[in-house]
Amino acid sequence: MEIEKRDPLLAKQVTARDMLRGDLDGADLERYVEERVVTTTFEKMLNLARANSIFPLTFGLACCAIEAPISIVTARYDLARFGAEALRASPRQADLIILSGRVSIKMAPVVRRLYDQMLEPKWAISMGACSSSGGMFANYAVVQGADKFMPIDMHIPGCPPRPEAVMYGFSKLQRKIMGNPDQGWRARYNAAGTEEWARGGPRSEPSAEAAAAYEEARELTLA
Amino acid sequence: MPDAPGLELIRQEIERDLPGSVGGTSYEHGCAAMIVDPEQILAVLGWLKETPGQNYGFLSSLHVADYLPAEPRFGVHYELLNFDRRERLRVKAMLADPGEDALPEIDSVTALFPTADAQERESYDFFGIVFRGHPNLTRILLPDDYVGWPQRRDFPVGGEPVTFTYNEHNRG
User: Fold this and answer.
1) What is the ipTM of this complex?
2) C-alpha B55: how far from chain center
3) Cβ neighbours of residue B138 under 8 Å, at least 6 residues apart?
4) Which residues, 6+ apart, have CB-to-CB distance to A2 below 8 Å?
5) Residue A190: what are its φ and ψ, rounded to 5°?
6) Residue B6, pLDDT score
7) Candidates 3.30.1360.120, 3.30.460.80, 3.40.50.150, 3.30.200.20; CATH matching B4-156
8) pTM (2 d.p.)
9) Considering only CB atoms, which chain A residues are within 8 Å of B141?
10) With an 8 Å Cβ cutoff, is A102 touching chain B?
């Protein structure tokens, strides 16, 4: 075979095909193919692409802006590893807004307008105590929680949150985008077994483990 | 900083030219302050700025304080500075609260000190002091449609009560 004279990459492909041809057949060939091919739905593939190519808006409100858009995109924390390194300076091109700091009542219409200008699908992270609840600024000038004037997908606690916390929240948002509704809150709130289907919903019967966990949680709650 | 006798000398000289303009002086913590008649604030500040030997030509700050239980209630403070002698002099004008919807008024000093423009707007924004003759007396920091004068002491602090575990029984 004349493979040495060819392009090295093409040569590798040819050798892999030559290795596969004839070496495997029957059940071995089936398993070989199953291990290497993933079939999925179009929506899941789309969500996978969306979650791993987020364009955050270049946007800072207060001291949390030092932690979120500045610190986590630079070399030490490097949000580019999760596909979000392209900060957009225009809301028309962005699909994630990170509210990094307290929102004053004069700034709230501006933030809402920025959010409205972003194209669907879009997500919003409320970062830190101030934008989530007003924080220490319980006064006449600061909005007591940004979800009063716009939908928020993810709240990151902290004052300010560590960059690791921001990255954890970001990965949670990626899981949310990829259609996994489990945000881990059942484990945190000791709420195992309280799923709708565990109570014998119309669509499916609960498994034996889920029914037992539901009964246990119910007894713990009533005790 | 004029010392206490120096402050009294300034007061005597002002009283000679503008009778009845100074209501009192105070010298506390090394800080000389003069309480003047609000109706003559423009004349007093102009005198302090223009008179040879005084030359308090720089208004380093203009701010308002609300001494709510006291009467008169509002104090407009003018912090003057003489660059040559590096002396500071505080001039206070006390304003009474005129009642429900009316706002206390005082003359604007923007003609004397252009830097007072933004500071008088801020004082109007937070305390509702009307400066007569100001070129553009509108809100500067709060939204234009804000209702109320939030730095007054009888204005509610705002915010929302939050129930923490340590005080949930107190809050009910």
Assistant:
1) 0.76
2) 20
3) B121, B124, B144
4) none
5) 55, 45
6) 87
7) 3.30.460.80
8) 0.71
9) 106
10) no
